[in-house]
Amino acid sequence: MDSLNLEDRYFCDLKTTKDIHAANWIKQGDRNVKTNFVEAYGYYMQMAIYRELIRQTFDIDCIPLMFVVSKQQPIPEVANLV
């Protein structure tokens, strides 16, 4: 957790990823299923654990917020000039 605001009842976690929209795969039973990186890396569970720890420690239910930054390089625009 990167920041906690008990007064306004939220916490923030910062994440970086190679590509926000890239395909990620997880095992479900005997097959692989396409999903997003948040589920693939267990971030839903991480946010749930943080939320529960805050509730147990401070008796406050906070909203989890995740801020994600892509590590992709910008793709330059290409133009034909005549």
What characteristics describe this protein?
35% strand, two-stranded antiparallel sheet, alpha+beta, flat, 5 strands, 82 residues, disordered C terminus
How does this model look, in words?
There is one protein chain. The protein is α+β, with helices and mostly antiparallel strands and 82 residues long. The chain has 2 helices and 5 strands, in the order ββββααβ. The strands form 2 sheets. The protein has a 3-stranded mixed sheet with strand order 1-2-5, covered by helices on one side. Strands 3-4 form a two-stranded antiparallel sheet. The chain is flat. Mean pLDDT is 87; it is low at 76-82.
* Shape assignment: flat
Computed CA radius of gyration, to the nearest angstrom: 18 Å
- What is the CA-CA span between the terminal residues? 52 Å
Strand order of the largest sheet: 1-2-5
Largest sheet composition: 3 strands, mixed
The H-and-E topology, N to C, reads as EEEEHHE
Helical content class: 10-25%
Q: Total number of β-strand segments?
A: 5
> Please, how many domains?
1
Q: Which structural category do the helix and sheet elements fall into? A: alpha+beta
Mean pLDDT: 87
Please work out how many helical segments DSSP would assign.
2
Strand content: 35-45%
